[in-house]
Amino acid sequence: MSLAAIVDLEAHPIGDAGFARACQETLDRDGVLVLADFLTAEALAAIHAEAVAGRKDAYFCAQNHSVYLTPFDSAYAEDHPANRQVVSSKGCICDDQVGAESPLRLLYDAPVFRGFVKAVTGQAGLYPYADPLSSINIHYAERGQELGWHFDNSSFAITLLIQKPAAGGRFEYLKDLRDAGAGEMNFEGVGALLDGAVEPAVLTMEPGTLVLFRGRNSVHRVSSNESDVTRMLAVLAYNAEPGVALSESARQTFYGRLG
């Protein structure tokens, strides 16, 4: 399958420097870039079939965690925003379960796509994970499953929506709620969000949409799936340096295995 069979290059000419520059400006301004109908209908159908077939092999888990994804800090009370717990629950299939001819694999490895992501994010280089599990994932959220509020450790994330639930499963966020580089955690703002005193923005998307999101300083979550239609999402993960692997403890927690 060629790149033109995977990406609607007429609507999204990712090899064009001017298009990439406009996308970079959007990402820099808004903290998020949404490219609707990025996938062709053919590619989306193939990825959907792959995700449905892989569901039986998905590892499902749930974790309690803080918004900051940090361990309990005894310097603060249990109900302090640094320590308050939210829940994330999902199923996942990993990179080694994604076929060599999958449109996801072909897109991930395509030099034109990688060059586009580098141009948009400003990264000097992009490399796959050194471990066999983390580069390409497909996530499943069934009724009652959600991703709790959190900040990412990475500077950006790339996702492709495969299937949208009939209700719930909303991507909600608040841009630049903290400044991790300056060490400003904004506990007051996070507390207000957790208390429901702040109304987050909602990112609307349909299957086939590509999203680049800067989540290191922008808090975000996926609300609970309120339907019997599984939310399915592909995550394409790169590193700025070669040879980086997700830690063994993280792999065991999120994937239920090391390789």
UniProtKB/TrEMBL annotation:
SUPFAM superfamilies: Clavaminate synthase-like. PROSITE patterns: FE2OG_OXY. Residues 131-242 form the Fe2OG dioxygenase domain. Keywords: Iron, Metal-binding, Oxidoreductase. It comes from the Bacteria. Pfam families: HalD (PF23169). Belongs to the iron/ascorbate-dependent oxidoreductase family. This is 2OG-Fe(II) oxygenase. It comes from Sulfitobacter sediminis.
